[in-house]
Design brief:
Layout: H1 2-5, H2 11-19, E1 26-35, E2 42-44, E3 46-51, E4 54-60, E5 69-80, E6 82-87, H3 100-103, H4 106-122, E7 125-130, H5 138-148, E8 155-158, E9 162-163, H6 193-205, E10 211-214, H7 233-245, E11 250-254, H8 257-266, E12 270-273, H9 279-288, E13 291-293, H10 298-309, H11 313-336, E14 340-341, H12 357-363, H13 368-374, H14 377-383, E15 399-402, E16 418-421, E17 424-425
Length: 427
Amino acid sequence: MRQLRRGHLTAALATALLAAPAAAQTIYVETGRLIDGVSSTVRTGQCIRIEAERIASVAPCGAMPAGATRIDWSAYTVLPGLIDLHTHLADLGQSADLAAPMKASPAETALVGARNARVTLDAGFTSVRDVGTYRGLTDVTLRNAIERGDVPGPRMWVAGAYLTIPKGGGELNGVVPNEQLPADMRLGVAASPEEAAAKTTYLLDHGADFIKTIATGAVLAIGTEPGAPELSEAQLRAIVKVAHARGKRVTAHAHGAQGIKNAIAAGVDSIEHASLADDEALQMAKAHGTWLAMDIYNGDYIDEIGTSKGWPAEYLRKNRDTTAAQRQAFRRAVELGVNIGFATDAGVYPHGLNARQFAYMVRYGMTPMQAIQSATGRAAEEMGRSDIGAIVPGRYADLVAVRADPLADIRALEAIDHVMKGGVLVR
């Protein structure tokens, strides 16, 4: 146990924690610096008692409970497990091959998703909101496999498919005539408010946790423009009505200002990207309490890697048209106090690099603590969850530990030292 008190987990302890059900033991975690995800106070000398996957208490360290396993993280900053609100785990990832999503079967896509899930968890992201896949409902399969313990991965909340107009930003355009695409790649295609409502019902009936709508064109979709509205306000209202009646949230992919305003007016809960938001759109978001999920890191990745790997010129042009504007909109949203959650569009860039966005959020106006909270307590708030995102009693014991101080250098979160999910040590 002396070796543990020096901050080094023995191989035997790591194996025991990985193998044993969390409910079978009490775990006592000694922290150095504690950031709880909801307050701005950094506490020292705190110990976290974990029972049955959840946090039972957080208090100054004292005598270890009888029979408990002690983990010494006294040399680390301990934070809640991180949350990414915009990922695409159950997908192949972006490449120059437009047909890649169609070439992979649903089974292959799910297996790739399992790999993506493990990498994401290992990077310290213990929960994600997965906002769509071309192979509809593959994300439901992956979520269920993680929940059963078949594969390791973060807690997932999934959209099932994209709700999009025909040939819109949620379709696999430019490969074959869209009508010839596999049926599971068009589960959310809707041409009218009535069809949009019916598709919403279908996705919720088949396991979707929330609904993802495509309110404008997309950067990474052939034949669509980010500034152009797509789903109409009437379609969006029909979707929101069905989802909210069932207690489910709705988010809208929306780059252009008018599409953002249409979505907010229709009652969506959050906006993805918000790249071309004007001041009126940001003021609307603030007035309505609408959340923004702005992926301000990956524009640089798309420009560099997309150019070197031969991604379609249309993609690269649209990325250049939106990247700088999005970052300025983010800065203005921070100034206005608009609700902002941590969201990266992981899958456009390799999974596991999610934490690279923190430095961009600080560069464009957030304090390090605000950036951390956007991926912990605030992200949980955006999802309507009271069981994740904070180190407080009653929440899941999802924790990360980093030796460096992320408040002094936010990039410390790019190299997480230890990860725990539900009281089980991941590494």
